[in-house]
Amino acid sequence: MISSVKVLLVSLLAGFAFGFTRPIIPSNRVWGSSQLLQSRSAAAAATTTMMATAGNVLVREPVRTGGPAVLERPETARKERVEEPVKQRRRAGGEAWEVRIYNDGLNTREHVARSLVQVTGMSEINAYQTMMQAHQNGIAVVGRWCYEVAEMYHDALRKNGIVCDIVPVDEDM
Asked: Distance from first CA to last CA of the chain, Å, rounded?
């Protein structure tokens, strides 16, 4: 009597755990819990075998493991680093450098003035005057800075599409 109640409770719990809408009630025979588990594993094996033998049905076989797997690191070819020549400045970094912009037919005057304000922090009036000088004369000096700052402004203006260059300033003039 107690074992049949256990079987009924186990089947009820198993049915709800696997999402069955109605409980699975065993036949009139009273099984022990080990017999019930053996019966279910045999049914699962039979289902797997039937799935494997079916014609166009996806084959789902049980996972068989032979122990822990050992993965070896794949061999890769090591890249040799090539020493590239470092850019050498023509003059020392402490000297003054000029950033110059040129007139071009690609950029609008508004874009050039806005880029000067955003990149160098110029006032809008100075940026407009510098842009107009480049527009009328073909070239304009944006400003003089040490090399690192001038290079930073030059690169940022280039990224905004402004045609510009950086040149050392002769202090003799």
From this structure: 114
Spell out where 73-158 has E strands.
Answer: 96-102, 139-146
- For 147-156, how does the pLDDT look when each residue is reduced to its tens digit (9 = 90+)? 999 999 999 9
Instruction: Determine the residue type at 19.
Output: G
Name beta bridge partners: 139.
102
The encoded tokens of residue 28 equal 């009139």
- Which has the closest alpha carbon to 6: 27, 39, 31, 42? 31
User: What is the side-by-side order of every strand in the sheet holding 164-168?
Assistant: 139-146, 96-102, 164-168
Residue 9, both tokens: 């409770």
**Backbone phi, then psi, for 122, in 5-degree steps?**
-65, 160
pLDDT digits (tens, 9 = 90+) for 10-34: 565 555 555 555 545 554 555 455 5
Measured from the Cβ of residue 69, the count of other Cβ atoms closer than 10 Å reads 6
Residues 6+ apart with CB under 8 A from 41: none
Q: Are 97 and 170 in contact (CB under 8 A)?
A: no
Residue 103: phi, psi to the nearest 5? -75, 135
What are the chain's domains?
2-53 (no CATH), 96-168 (3.30.1390.10)
